[in-house]
Design a protein that fits this description.
With 247 residues, this protein is α/β, with parallel strands linked by helices. The chain has a single domain, classed as LmbE-like (Rossmann fold, 3-Layer(aba) Sandwich). It has 9 helices and 8 strands. It has helices at residues 13-16, 19-27, 54-68, 101-115, 132-148, 175-180, 195-202, 209-218, 221-224, and strands at 4-8, 32-38, 73-79, 119-122, 154-158, 187-190, 225-232, 242-243. It has an 8-stranded mixed beta sheet with strand order 3-2-1-4-5-7-6-8, with helices on both faces. Helix 3 packs antiparallel against helix 7. The mean pLDDT is 96.
């Protein structure tokens, strides 16, 4: 039985919010599995590779990142991710939100059924920052659990202690909606000595170095303290934040 299954849309989503958690779980022999819904073809390349080669490069970066965290059970699907404009060298595309559920949920449900996780971790309803692929991944994760027939004991979302403060971005949820759907952390994991493998894993995403640096500059505390909102079973609103070893 797998302790935890992470469902996210993009390569690199796995490391920012739970890299230290994964490294600690691996060190204690607690099995983690990941399911990534796209190969990140809409990401930046920083001219480290040709645009056509970017999905292969990002898959390799993802696998290297997870290897650094001790995660061996890795599944990637190959659905389109959100392309906001032509600056990425691609035609604009709505991403995961236009993929028919019949084309993606069965494959996701197979992973849930195979791994039978005790815990599911994914993005919150607002996608944390309103990104349409993050929002869609949240919805699809629940659909996959329902379709799998697996009784997942606990469900957690990535959570920040600060509501969204960014500006409006085309294709993203409006800022007022993101803030209205904010879910505060209920649980936190301190990185401690597992910060080192987390940073090593982040460094594997070379093509996304600007995103890595942006995260480090804007969310420095989340490098050392990873925070989550428990959606199942629900936690009383006034319960505060519980520091735990793992979820």
């Amino acid at each position: 039985m797998t302790e935890l299954l992470l469902i996210v849309p993009h390569p690199d989503d796995e490391v920012f919010g739970c890299g230290a958690l994964f490294a600690r779980m691996a060190a204690y022999g607690r099995k983690v599995a990941t399911l990534t819904l796209t190969r990140g073809r809409a990401g930046r390349s920083l001219e480290l590779c040709d645009r056509d080669d970017l999905p292969d490069v990002r898959e390799a970066e993802l696998r290297a990142s997870l290897a650094a965290l001790g995660v061996e059970d890795v599944t990637l699907l190959d659905h389109p991710d959100f392309v906001p404009d032509e600056k990425r060298g691609l035609e604009p595309h709505p991403g995961l939100q236009v993929v028919p559920e019949a084309d993606i949920v069965p494959a996701m449900a197979e992973v849930v059924a195979r791994t039978r996780p005790r815990v599911l971790l994914t993005f919150p309803p607002n996608g944390s920052n309103g990104h349409p692929d993050h929002v869609t991944a949240h919805r699809l994760a629940w659909r996959a659990v329902e379709a799998s027939g697996v009784d997942v004991e606990r469900v957690y979302y990535f959570a920040s202690d600060r509501p969204y403060s960014g500006t409006e971005r085309p294709g993203f949820l409006p800022p007022d909606v993101i803030r209205a759907q904010h879910l505060a952390p209920t649980h936190a994991v301190e990185a401690g000595r597992y910060l080192e493998p987390k940073l090593r894993a982040m460094a594997q995403h070379r093509t996304q170095a600007l995103s890595v640096l942006d995260f480090m500059a804007r969310f420095t505390r989340r490098l050392s303290v990873e925070s989550f909102h428990r959606a199942r079973p629900e936690v009383a609103p006034d319960a505060g934040v519980h520091t735990v070893t793992w979820l």
